[in-house]
Amino acid sequence: MRRLPPLNALKAFEAAARHQSFTAAAHELNVTQTAVSQLVKSLEERLGVALFERRGNQLSLSPRGMGYLPAVSDAFDRIAAATAILDETDARQITLGCGPTFAMRWLIPRLPDFQRAHPECEVRLSTTLAVRELQSQSPLPDGVDAAVRLYDPSKPEPGLMADPLFTADLFPVCAPGLAARLKTMADLARETLLEVRHAPGEWRDWLSAAGLGSMVPSSSLSFDFHAFALQAALDGAGVALARRPFVTDDLKAGRLIAPFALSLPKGGAWCLLYRPEAAGGSAFLKLRDWLIGAAMPPTA
Fold this sequence. Notes:
- The chain is built from 11 helices and 11 strands.
- It is of the alpha/beta class.
- It has 3 domains: 7-86, Winged helix-like DNA-binding domain superfamily/Winged helix DNA-binding domain (Arc Repressor Mutant, subunit A); 90-168 and 268-295, Periplasmic binding protein-like II (D-Maltodextrin-Binding Protein, domain 2); 170-253, D-Maltodextrin-Binding Protein, domain 2 (3-Layer(aba) Sandwich), CATH 3.40.190.10.
- A hairpin with a 2-residue loop joins strand 1 and strand 2 (58-61).
- Helix 2 crosses helix 3 (33-47).
- 28% of the residues are buried.
């Protein structure tokens, strides 16, 4: 059983601590200054610690109060966020973060299916997540309800849920005409390798796994995002490394060919990331179920 102080006393403490004033806290909570003072005093007595230092008309947090405030404020913030998700208007909207390549090459072509199935839901895409990833920021930035990105479920982050969608394995792809020239892996030495600047080691790792670690390609082209490298591969400019969700449709349609069976495991997976409180939103639950279903490999 949880040992929780009275909620009203916690609210009085949190408001008074933010404002550094019982009077301002009373105005925010629509009660009297005396009521706030009594609630805080009762909380201090219950906890057995002084949360404020009182010097005449001056009010400041004690060291114990300063340590207690962040946890209390965070708890109220989480309750407010979870409550907002349950609101009928908010429950119809969800902001989904993902990188531009995933959005362009897998998600956007499939979103009309979700919209036809759930016209009452509004999905807002935020592709700024890719920039945040490169800057090693939080995998789930503020303002994003859920995100699809590369993640290692074996190393979970506190307060974050993860549903795996796809593997992150890498394999070469190219246009059919170019694929016809690739009889063996060693033939890659005569072709242009399409690289991605923020993932410079991908070709090196794949070639090493293929036993071609010392191979020097005839030429290479470098791009900012995987989406650009894959478009260049579609246009016959060279051979790109791909992850399965990026090229599923092109492989099925024959626009791209995977000339070799070797697929390099990269660890982790493409996952749907979200905070536990997001699971209370109807739009999120519908989108989550749809994403997991759409990511499943087709049955024979």
